[in-house]
Amino acid sequence: DMARGAVPGWAFGGKNGIRSALLLATSLACWISSVEGYFKGDPVQCFKRIQYQGKRTMWSDVLIGQAPLFAVDKAVELHIPSHDIPAYESLKLQLSYDYEKFTSEWLTVGNGQGTELDMIMVVFAYSGADIHEVRHKLTYKHGDKEAQHSHRTTVTIAYHWIEELETDTRSGLNFLFVAGCFLTLLAIVAVALDSGDLTNTRALLVPEYEDSDRKRPKVKKFTLFQKDETGENDVPTTLGAEADRHTTGAADQEGLRSRGGETAGGEAGVPAAAESAGGKAD
């Protein structure tokens, strides 16, 4: 044995080795089931516990014959350990499913006043190999408080499965992304076309300042660029103070010329009159 080295005892087929192998296989099966989900007919792990006189028991396993089977409708009698609980005491039950992922509220089995739980309807909502929701519907029956000597030890529990349609979240997100990109592209094209239309149909007015370094420079003139009749060339037109100044200067110069001629004629006439007057005097 020493020559072989440290070899586990279960490797030679002892009872401890068989138990270890079974425990390992069970753990592996539970782990695979929890990772890959359920198949139809697989038992769903279920726990139960009761409450009375302000005390709660520990969680205990529900037998496989009384537990739900994945995607299989059935009704069974669920055992409730209520032998030592007086009938006048309120008794409540709590159930847990799928490794405590879903836990019910405290379900009243008997209120101590003659009302007893008659049936529990458990509705499972699932899709694929996963359970999404668990709901409970309770049915009660009312009896005589005096005739009730103890709580019932079993209650009918019915398991009903509802399959929900699977939603492909990734496909939905991809569709939204593609739709958003398409709408953005359409908006860019529309803005570009609109800008081109504005450029072709509208004129451009460019100001020119006398002293651009001043805080509030004075506008010297405006240059208006417009398309010609062909729509291909820009034709500049000067507007503003500088253009008015040129126009006014030309008119003033014309007026000064006319007034200068009249003055020259008048001044020339004065000496002539003087000369005429002098001749007469002579």
* Overall form: elongated
Rg for CA atoms: 52 Å
Taken in chain order, the helices and strands follow as: HEEEEEEEEEEHEEEH
**How many helices in DSSP terms?**
3
Mean pLDDT: 75
Q: What is the beta-strand fraction? A: 25-35%
For the secondary structure, the number of strands is 13
Helix content: 25-40%
Assembly type of the chains comes to: single chain
Q: What composes the largest sheet?
A: 6 strands, antiparallel
Distance between the termini: 175 Å
Overall SS class: alpha+beta
Uncertain residue ranges: 1-13, 262-282
Structural overview:
It contains three helices and 13 strands, in the order H-E-E-E-E-E-E-E-E-E-E-H-E-E-E-H. With 282 residues, it is of the alpha+beta class. The strands form three sheets. Strands 1, 2, 3, 5, 6 and 7 form a six-stranded antiparallel beta sheet that branches. Strands 4-10-8-9 form a four-stranded mixed beta sheet, with no helix packed on it. A three-stranded antiparallel beta sheet has the order 11-12-13. Strand 8 and strand 9 (130-142) form a beta hairpin. It is elongated. It starts with 14 loop residues before the first helix and ends with a helix. Mean pLDDT is 75; it is low at 1-13 and 262-282.
